Design the sequence.
């Protein structure tokens, strides 16, 4: 079974703090994702990564950054936490085959596997 | 930009009844996923639908996909309390790689 582990289930931080959320997967998946989940809004993609040291902005990247130094680990960073970043944060990973043409990703993948999610981190910013 | 809408957002039903959750998406998608989330828990994959006319069934849940109508349905047959959860659909744009766009979720409550 795929295991996606998020470092904390609950986290309370103060406005202006730099916050790190960690996610580790044990299945050698290339792709990893960070979402936030808010009532009535579903899941919104913050950032994702196709491979080590590669990252792509999702739909709501403002105020966030990410780091992928190792294949199994994907970190979400709140540079200066604000109260509107209070939310549930979900990490996911999936196994895909990315096609690279030279140094560019073509964006075409051929895997149908679903994304596997961690248990989530409920983050409160005071 | 792909948008995914679910209907209804809240559903309260009695045990033993049938009902359908609808998932509409706005642009071409080549993959449609259904997930379940229990309160305080993570998302669990239910179905992956890959082509027009695809139908998948697991227990009392059946999912189908009509790519021409840009519609997927999740049909619940003879609901039981254990099916109470939030159900999400997610679509993958045809050219987006592995990223998904999720619907708002349907919160299902099955009453005895």
Sequence:
């Amino acid at each position: 079974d795929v295991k996606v582990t998020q470092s904390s289930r609950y986290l309370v931080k103060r406005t202006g703090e730099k916050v790190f959320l960690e996610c580790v997967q044990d299945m050698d998946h290339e792709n990893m994702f960070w979402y936030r989940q808010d009532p009535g809004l579903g899941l919104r993609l913050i950032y994702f990564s196709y491979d080590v040291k590669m990252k792509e902005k999702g739909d709501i990247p403002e105020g966030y950054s990410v780091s992928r130094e190792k294949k199994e680990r994907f970190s979400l960073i709140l540079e200066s936490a604000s109260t509107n970043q209070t939310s549930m944060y979900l990490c996911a990973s999936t196994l895909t085959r990315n096609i690279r043409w030279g140094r560019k990703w073509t964006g075409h993948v051929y895997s149908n596997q679903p994304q596997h999610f961690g248990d989530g981190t409920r983050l409160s910013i005071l | 930009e792909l948008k995914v809408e679910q209907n209804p957002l809240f559903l309260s039903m009695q045990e033993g009844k049938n009902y359908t959750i609808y998932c509409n998406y706005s642009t071409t998608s080549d993959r449609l996923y259904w997930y379940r989330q229990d309160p305080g828990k993570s998302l669990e994959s239910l179905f992956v639908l890959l082509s027009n006319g695809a139908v998948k069934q697991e227990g009392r849940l059946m999912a189908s996909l009509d790519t021409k109508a840009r519609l997927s349905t999740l049909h619940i047959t003879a609901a039981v309390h254990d099916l109470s959860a939030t159900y999400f659909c997610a679509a993958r744009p045809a050219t987006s790689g592995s990223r998904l766009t999720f619907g708002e979720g349907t919160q299902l409550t099955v009453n005895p």
About this structure: The longest strand of chain B covers residues 29-37. Chain B has a mean pLDDT of 92.
